[in-house]
């Protein structure tokens, strides 16, 4: 792998690629037809979108199966063999649009499109009973807000757990058009200190649109609002959003308004690979964003085929700290979409985390993980100790539906193949300590 630093010397125009025109990309057109067809098969089920920055600056086309290529372009292995065959045979016999889309939806429904009880458990309501499908509220202090204008991204990550939002399965979309309902909800819930803008990518929005939401929050003078977070991959996939796009200065102005008001602005930046941190454009974008008073925290899942390498994580954290970013979360791949392709068993994930963690100074050890965003909460694997002669996995909640669950160690049978919380069995006793309460409080909603 080459991690070459490039300089920022251009003002590029965005060119986007989807399944409709991906064969126009010269490097794709140069690939064997068979390979192009594989991308088409997978791209008809899972979302695909890339742009010229990703293609020209991030992907190393001289390397077969380059990580940035796998991160953004559909690969055959991302579908299970029988799903792959099902879609391939429809395309081979020239099935019409309707048949392709019905087949795609059949497959998608088998890929656990809404993991962790998002639909059943996290959709909040206002005091008057209005359900807010554009919000999620799972952990007391933080509510998620999905502006309807941020239901896409500059490019799609092939592992993305929000993939159903991008494939036109409308009933699976979280989106909200109105900032007033957000304000009202935060006002009705004094326990909320953080509003997290998410999507898609809120930084796909024009500055004017984002300003409307942010200013609604600021103008409401909500005493409980301490932090506005923005979950974004724009720094990785389109840093020009903050540099040369027409509305870049306007966007930075909104950031300044937030921080001047005394509200913390936390950019939750997704960086999955060292290459994403290596261009002149991303360096400059990080510099100007930090110049507004925002803090940038970084997060990524640990992904097979992309970054399952402790050396890479150590170098990412080093570089992030050097650039003034704060390493925040390493996630386990969620139980949806192409988990079979990207997933790393929890024991190995913990090993990679630890090997990387021990190589960085305390300033990089703000990171936590590997963490599973599971139905009951965020669960971290702490290690694999031997207790009374029995090798186990030690776990704890970093976040819980019940805050009282947080930071209590609990133990599972040692299992080198387990990839998710559901695969684990209690090491001592009949059940994990939180299971009975989960069942009592949420069993009916989850249909279990
Ligand atoms: C991760 C997450 C949050 C934020 O958790 P922090 O630990 O405060 O960063 C909020 N809501 C949901 C649903 C999450 O998955």
Short summary:
The protein has helices at residues 26-29, 33-43, 52-58, 67-72, 81-92, 97-109, 118-121, 179-188, 207-219, 234-237, 248-260, 280-290, 310-322, 339-342, 346-357, 435-446, and strands at 16-17, 50-51, 135-139, 142-145, 194-197, 227-232, 264-270, 295-301, 326-331, 368-373, 377-383, 386-387, 390-400, 410-413.
Overview of the molecule:
- This protein is α/β, with parallel strands linked by helices and 448 residues long.
- The chain folds into 3 domains: 16-108, no CATH class; 119-301, TIM Barrel (Alpha-Beta Barrel); 336-448, no CATH class.
- It is 33% helix and 16% strand.
- Strands 3, 4, 5, 6, 7, 8, 9, 10, 11, 12, 13 and 14 form a 12-stranded mixed β-sheet that branches. It has a two-stranded antiparallel ribbon with strand order 1-2.
- α13 (310-322) packs across α15.
- The longest helix has 13 residues, at 97-109.
- It is globular and about 60 Å long.
- 42% of the residues are buried.
| Coarse morphology | globular
Q: CATH superfamily assignment of the largest domain? A: Aldolase class I
Mean pLDDT: 94
Unreliable stretches (pLDDT < 50, length at least 5) are none
Helical/strand content category: alpha/beta
Quickly name the level 1 CATH class of the largest domain. Alpha Beta
The helicity comes to 25-40%
Beta-strand residue percentage? 15-25%
Which architecture of the largest domain does the CATH hierarchy give at level 2?
A: Alpha-Beta Barrel
The largest pleated sheet is described as: 12 strands, mixed
Which ligands are bound? Answer: pyridoxal-5'-phosphate
Number of E-type strands:
14
Count of distinct structural domains? 3
* CATH fold descriptor of the largest domain: TIM Barrel
């Amino acid at each position: 792998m080459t991690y070459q630093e490039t300089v920022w010397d251009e003002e590029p125009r965005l060119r986007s690629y989807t399944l409709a025109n991906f064969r126009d990309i010269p490097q794709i057109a140069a690939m064997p037809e068979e390979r192009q067809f594989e991308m088409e098969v997978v791209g008809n089920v899972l979302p695909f979108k890339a742009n010229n920055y990703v293609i020209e600056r991030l992907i190393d086309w001289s390397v077969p199966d380059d990580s940035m290529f796998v991160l953004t372009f559909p690969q055959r292995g991302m579908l299970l063999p029988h799903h792959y065959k099902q879609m391939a045979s429809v395309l081979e016999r020239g099935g019409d649009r309707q048949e392709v889309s019905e087949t795609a939806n059949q497959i998608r429904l088998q890929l656990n499109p809404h993991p962790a009880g998002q639909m059943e458990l996290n959709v909040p309501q206002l005091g008057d009973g209005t359900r807010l499908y554009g919000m999620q509220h799972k952990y007391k202090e933080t509510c998620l807000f999905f502006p309807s204008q941020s239901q896409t991204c500059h490019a799609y990550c092939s592992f993305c757990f929000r993939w159903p939002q991008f494939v036109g399965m409308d009933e699976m979309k979280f989106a909200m058009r109105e900032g007033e309902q957000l304000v009202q909800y935060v006002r009705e819930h004094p326990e909320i200190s953080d509003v997290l803008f998410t999507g898609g990518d809120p930084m796909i929005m024009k500055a004017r649109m984002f300003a409307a939401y942010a200013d609604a929050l600021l103008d409401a003078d909500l005493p409980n609002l301490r932090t506005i977070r923005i979950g974004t991959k724009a720094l990785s996939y389109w840093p020009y959003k903050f540099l040369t796009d027409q509305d870049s200065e306007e966007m930075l102005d909104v950031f300044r308004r937030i921080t001047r008001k005394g509200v913390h602005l936390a950019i939750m930046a997704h960086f999955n690979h060292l290459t994403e941190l290596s261009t002149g454009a991303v360096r400059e974008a990080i510099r100007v964003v930090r110049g507004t008073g925002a803090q940038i925290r970084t997060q990524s899942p640990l992904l097979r085929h992309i970054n399952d390498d402790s050396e890479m994580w150590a170098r990412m954290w080093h570089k992030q700290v050097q650039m003034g970013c704060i390493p925040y979360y390493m996630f386990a791949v969620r139980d949806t979409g192409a988990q079979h392709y990207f997933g790393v068993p929890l024991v190995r994930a913990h090993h990679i985390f630890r090997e990387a963690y021990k190589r960085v100074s305390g300033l990089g050890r703000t990171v936590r993980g590997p963490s599973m965003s599971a139905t009951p909460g965020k669960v971290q694997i702490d290690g694999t100790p031997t207790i009374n002669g029995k090798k186990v996995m030690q776990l704890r909640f970093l976040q819980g539906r019940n805050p009282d669950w947080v930071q209590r160690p609990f133990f599972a049978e040692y299992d080198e193949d387990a990839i998710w919380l559901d695969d684990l069995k209690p090491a001592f006793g009949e059940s994990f300590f939180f299971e009975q309460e989960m069942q009592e409080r949420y069993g009916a909603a989850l249909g279990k």
